[in-house]
Amino acid sequence: MREDRGYKENNATISTYDITVTTVFDVILDKPMCHSLEQARHLPRAVGETGRSLCLTHTYTDYSMVKQVRQMILRYDIGLVRKVYVEYSQGWLSHDNVNSKQAQRRLDPKQSGPSGCLGDIGVHAFNLTEYVAGLQVTHVCADLRSVIDGCQLDDDASVLLRFNNGASSIEWQHTDCSIVVVRWFDSPAEVYCTGTQYLSQKTMHNTRIPAGHPEGYIGAFANIYRNFTRTVRAKKNDEECSSNELGDFPGVKEGVRGMVFIETCVANGRNNNEKWIELKE
Fold it and tell me: Start and end of every GFO/IDH/MocA-like oxidoreductase domain (predicted)?
């Protein structure tokens, strides 16, 4: 293994001790960024002071059509965002898999932190929502529960969100990631497809295949890695970097937001006296 490169298991998030790594290396890691919000709050300063870069593999924000939706919302092509609905459903635990290797890691508080479902997949939905809508969640009302026998952590979460400005009626599905459907109140629905010339420049920059072919999951990871490495190279060599790539990846800010979301939802789910709890960084 090269001396300037390191590797950790997928469940090894950054600890307080590991913060020193960000002073030496540019870092790519999976979400959630840390085991606790307390750990996460140390990282922005550490990253900012060293000038190093940190990237989280929130993969879903790097599908080209997700970037198209974000551009449409930022340009007000669909008007004011009034409502956002997002879900991430997985069913593998329903087949009595609580003793499998994957389940043991995800449902062990010592390895996964305070939440199972939210930390594993819910934070993806949260990150996708804030990225696409260009808004921030301000309050949550969370119902966390374990519906599978033997789970130490939540395996199901339903969370009501309040934003700093509303939300929207755009539909995008991971199972059909090459298509975006915009549903208008008083006009026919519009369907946008990958690889077509009417898409934004940023969308086309993150599209690798012609229209009519499905986008691959690996392509979203490739977008994150490319944008991160070119940003790192530009900073290191004092070079110019395309605005389509510079900083266009989930980083320490998104990592802190994810931990705020997880811990606030966990606290709210345990609180029977307070319906809404504000997200505080």
Answer: 67-170
* Beta strand spans in 75-224 (E): 137-145, 156-163, 170-171, 179-182, 190-193
- Helix, strand, coil proportions of the chain in percent (round to 5)? 40, 15, 45
Structure tokens at 179: 């298509």
Q: What is the tens place of the pLDDT at every residue in 13-31?
A: 555 445 555 667 888 888 8
Q: Where are the domains of the chain?
A: 63-210
Report the sign of the C-alpha dihedral through residues 95, 100, 103, 109, in that order.
positive
- Tell me the H-state helices in 134-237: 201-205, 217-237
Q: What is the distance of C-alpha 66 from the center of its chain?
A: 12
Tell me the pLDDT tens digit for each residue of 38-92. Answer: 888 888 888 888 888 889 999 999 998 899 999 999 999 988 888 888 888 877 7
CATH topology of domain 63-210: Dihydrodipicolinate Reductase; domain 2 (3.30.360)
Find the length of the chain. 281
Of the candidates 246, 232, 88, the residue with the CA atom closest to the CA atom of residue 157: 88
